[in-house]
Amino acid sequence: MRSGVMEMPKTEKVKMRLGKQCVICEKRREEGISIAFSFICQTCEQEIVHLNDSDQMYNKYVKQMRTVSSQYV
Ligand SMILES: [Zn+2]
């Protein structure tokens, strides 16, 4: 006999299909690379590779990495 006891909602582990949030473009992607605690989507990874000589892109990348890193400290 149930005496007003609420049933606990079933907790279910759901596989994340939305992907992770890219630290650079801040969009969720399923494919990409993980560096330390950061996730970089395939698109941005390609950009980094292609714009390897670009200080602007590199600075943005480093800045984003620092932002993310500080969140985990
Ligand atoms: Zn990205």
UniProtKB/TrEMBL annotation:
Protein's UniProt name: Inhibitor of sigma-G Gin
